[in-house]
Specification:
By secondary structure, the protein is of the alpha/beta class. The protein has 2 domains: 6-146, Rossmann fold (3-Layer(aba) Sandwich); 156-215, Orthogonal Bundle (Arc Repressor Mutant, subunit A), CATH 1.10.10.10. Helices cover 52% and strands 15% of the residues. It is built from 10 helices and 7 strands. It has helices at 15-26, 40-50, 66-76, 91-99, 112-123, 137-155, 161-171, 176-183, 187-201, 206-215; strands at 6-11, 31-37, 54-58, 81-86, 104-107, 127-129, 132-134. The strands form 2 sheets. It has a 5-stranded parallel beta sheet with strand order 2-1-3-4-5, sandwiched between helices. It has a two-stranded antiparallel ribbon with strand order 6-7. Helix 2 packs parallel to helix 3 (66-76). It starts with 5 loop residues before the first strand and ends in an 11-residue tail after the last helix.
């Protein structure tokens, strides 16, 4: 069994975010941060110097952008798997990042649990998008486009992305405990989200919510769309 730690480089132009991320990673068994930088030029230099397994890369940086960094590493850099971290969801930009060589994309507000899963999946050769692993870059792009469609659905009833995830899970027949375990949040948080959803869409039970979701196209065949 290979017990070698996953070597990680962190590149983000916000020092507080970068420092917090480094501390989280260093506290997790099996990870080691071998470098950190603030822009694309430092990312390229660190990848050449340290030969990491995974590069955590912000797309929006001064100087050499994340997109330019991906292109440079794809054409001349050593082999590294890159997880793009973003504070916004722009379908074209993220799809382009995958096509330029990124192995995954993840929102910065994602949970620590998901981040650790994403790093391990990418280091193992998988791709990561929409909160889960996929086999190929093409699968990742398709998932991104489906995720964008989910955003459009959620805005119809002022539902947040998390609330829409829970609606889909309820329609699929999952219990609060099952939803909480899958999303890595507490059952209390699930109840809080459900109460908000009930108020927004005007239903009074899980059965009514499932029927409402199916009728209004928030889910298809009771399966989550994110």
């Amino acid at each position: 069994m290979n017990t070698r730690p996953i070597r990680i480089v962190v590149v983000d132009d916000h020092p507080l975010f970068r420092d917090g991320l480094r501390r989280l990673l260093e506290a997790e068994p099996g990870f080691i941060v071998v470098g950190e930088g603030a822009d694309g030029s430092e990312a390229i230099r660190l990848v050449w110097q340290t030969c990491p397994d995974v590069l955590l890369l912000d797309l929006s940086m001064p100087g050499i952008s994340g997109s330019d960094t991906l292109r440079a590493l794809a054409s001349t850099g050593p082999c590294v798997r890159t997880l793009v971290l973003t504070g916004s969801f722009d379908l074209d930009t993220l799809a382009c990042a995958l096509q330029q060589g990124a192995a995954g994309v993840m929102r910065k507000e994602s949970s620590t649990t998901l981040l650790f899963k994403a790093i391990r999946a990418i280091a193992a050769g998988e791709y990561w998008v929409c909160g889960g692993p996929v086999a190929t870059a093409a699968d990742a792009v398709r998932c991104l486009r489906a995720d964008s469609t989910t955003n459009v659905r959620s805005h119809r009833f002022s539902l947040t992305r998390r609330e829409l995830e829970i609606v889909a899970a309820v329609a699929a027949g999952e219990s609060n405990k099952e939803i909480a375990e899958r999303l890595a949040i507490s059952k209390y948080t699930i109840k809080h989200h459900l109460a908000n959803v009930f108020d927004k869409v005007g239903v009074f039970s899980r059965v009514e919510l499932a029927a409402f979701a199916m009728h209004h196209g928030l889910v298809e065949s009771g399966r989550p769309q994110a």
